[in-house]
Amino acid sequence: MSSHTNTMSYVIYLVAYVVLIVLTAATVSLSLVRVGRWHLAVGMAIAAVKAGLVVLVFMHLARSPARTWMAAFVGLFWLGILFALTLTDYLVRFEATY
Amino acid sequence: MAVDTPALETQFTTLEQQHQSTLLGMWIFLDTEILLFGGLFVSVFAYRVWYGDDFDMASGRLNVLIGGVNTVVLLTSSLTMALAVHAALTGGRRLALWLVLTAVLGLAFLGLKGYEYLSDYREGLVPWTARFSAREWTEHTPPADPQHVALFLIFYYVMTGLHAVHLSVGIGLVVWLTRRAMAGRVTPDRSDVAEAIGLYWHFVDVVWIFLLPLLYLSVHHTPEDFHF
Lengths: 98, 228
Fold this sequence. Notes:
Chain A is an all-alpha fold. Chain A has three helices and no strands.
């Protein structure tokens, strides 16, 4: 016997795909609206939702055992360290004069 | 159809254990990939602290229509890949078809990306080429520092280039898996390989999902910017 524990139904994949396309259309259209400095923040927030959908549904994380969640968490945790320690430096430096 | 190796490798006790070990191995590899791309992402954010306005001005010149269309192409390839993995896990008949579609969509992305690089070159967006004009940026209102513009563009080429290298590897893996599937060697018992390649493919998709706003969408665009 093989393991089918992680797979999901066709319907869930299709629903996730439709939501991903709608979010892509939304984020590209938002660049036509003037939101000043918020373009990047809103864009990255929508990207985070899209990435979450891909990881949970297409990569089967939602149906995966705890050890897979651990691997996913570790990746985000180290990425968090990388961002936090780098940006706490650069964000508080005096403006570059060169 | 003869399978030349037994489905269960000697180091594993059960197929379930073998399958889950393969997946965990791929997840851990993807953790290292997160840090590889993460280093580039954090560098862009660090430089944005100082040169954010210049980066935005350069970002506004990228081809947002091709960037958006390519996002749809890649998301569609993730759907066909998910359906391929589903077929592999359940012994579905359309496995090879979904895999071929995935590879074709991956190639379509690379083709569009190549065309985009060419149009970037024509529009003077490749630093150190004759068409890149420092004056165009210093005389812009408001003016931008051409060196900061060049820095943003270098990040754009390095990050999209590294992504394209990853996608090329993915296409190679999918082609290899298609040949295996057509030889009848991707049985539900050995579907771990297909699911692991699927994980890699979706990860490359996730990288692009974040590259789109970071590079293309950090600034306001006008409808005239949407052209091929």
